[in-house]
Amino acid sequence: MHRTALHRTSALLRIFKGDIRHLPTSIKWTVASIAVYNLGWGFADPFFSLYLSNFSDNYSIIGFYITLQSLIGAVMLIPLGDLLDRVRHSVIINTSKFGYIFVGAGYFLAGYWQSTLILVISLLLNGAFAAGVWSGTQATLRDNSTPKDSAITFGFYTTARQLTWIIGLVMGLWVIDRYPIYYIFIPVIVLPIVSILLGRKVKPKHFEPLASALKDIVFKDKLIVRFFRELRGFRPEMWLMFFFFFSSFLIPVFATSFIPLYAQSQGYSFKEIGLLVLVMNTPYLFSFIAAEVADHSERFRNIMIGFGISALAIAGLSIWHYQSWQFIALAFCFMSGYAIMFPSISGVASMLTPKKDTGTSTAAIDLIIFMSAVALSPLLGFFIDATGWRGTFLIISLILACLMIVTVIVHHIFVVRNQIFVTDHPEDKHKPYIL
């Protein structure tokens, strides 16, 4: 049995290596560019909530800071979707990456001077520029991927960006051990420039000038009305994916923003918290395996498994958290659930999106993720202040278990409807529902 498992893993690695080799060049350069950009955030992200705790020791206030950042990003995404369907993605991505010079400098100075005003300005700029970087990158990947390689594309993307993020985290441990915590933002200032240079090799798919597109969007197309009209045109299955994007983001929001704070409350040092975050993010390195399984079997199965693993892990954390190894192992399992399901959710969303609507689809997905952070960050902070850590662990476990049940029910409905369709249309090889 052990040899069989090793054989299957080896086979998946060989398939993955071959699939990567055959991906379009633009996808490879896009992934390389965002991986270098994410290397900078590997220094800062793991300790960001600890950095915010220097400005307040109230969990609700820390959640509000995270909400502030996400809210401005959500607002920016409304025009961004239409822009990504018209203009060169590199214009939006590179402008946003360049803006991080000021974001990183702002965070550094806010920490140095203990200035809440500079912190708030930096959070707002961070939210605004993040929308352009991540939506632009994912829209480029969707533009250049095919239904056959959609999941492997996002598995490759997830694995590569998390690998460099983890490298940044390891290097960040050295920084926080020797310098004040705000020094972690220096790479955030420098590395986006390198990322811009790598992204220049990506071939554009849209060519309308930015000024012309902005003019049309604002004055001719009734921006907000058009955006939501296009959203209404998506299939019901796409709206189901939107729901999964929103609900599943509960896992990384809590893991990245609040679990480090829980570790701090238990007396863990910065170095120990960094190692904890490192362990929590290693499952992303194996997202390509989940992506290969998704491309060769049923994606909904991965989503079910992901919700189930995370629900059990966070429930276990409410009981077994007194030993460091228990805490770290359960935190690892908690994030593993999200790493398993994310490539499948993204892969289905890509398959359901017409090429002409990749910008709108990507912006809508990122808008939903931003709104998830907006809604959940202060709510989680409130739960912690009101019920304590153990009560919050149990609430999250219950929510994730309910989501797993919903996924099982939807999967069953889709399977039955596909079987009825095949029976009624035996000559038609196309099935109406993606599994």
Quick recap of the structure?
The chain is an all-alpha fold.
Structure in words:
This protein is mainly α. It has one domain (24-424): Up-down Bundle (Growth Hormone, Chain: A). Helix content is 81%, strand content 0%. The chain contains 18 helices and no strands. It has helices spanning 2-21, 25-44, 48-52, 59-84, 89-113, 116-144, 150-178, 186-199, 210-220, 223-232, 236-248, 250-257, 259-265, 270-281, 287-296, 299-317, 324-352, 358-424. α14 packs across α17. The radius of gyration is 21 Å and the shape is globular.
Descriptors:
Growth Hormone, Chain: A, MFS_trans_sf, single chain, 81% helix, transmembrane transporter activity, mainly alpha, transmembrane, globular, MFS_dom, Major facilitator superfamily (MFS) profile domain-containing protein, disordered N terminus, 435 residues
CATH class: Mainly Alpha
What percent of the residues sit in helical stretches (DSSP H or I)? over 70%
The secondary-structure class comes to: mainly alpha
Q: What is the element string, with H for helices and E for strands?
A: HHHHHHHHHHHHHHHHHH
Oligomer: single chain
Q: Mind telling me the CATH superfamily name?
A: MFS general substrate transporter like domains
For the record, the count of structural domains works out to 1
**Number of helical elements:** 18
Number of strands: 0
Give the end-to-end Cα distance, rounded to a whole number of Å.
Answer: 28 Å
Assigned CATH architecture = Up-down Bundle
Keywords: Membrane, Transmembrane, Transmembrane helix
Organism: Candidatus Kerfeldbacteria bacterium CG15_BIG_FIL_POST_REV_8_21_14_020_45_12
Pfam families: MFS_1
Protein name: Major facilitator superfamily (MFS) profile domain-containing protein
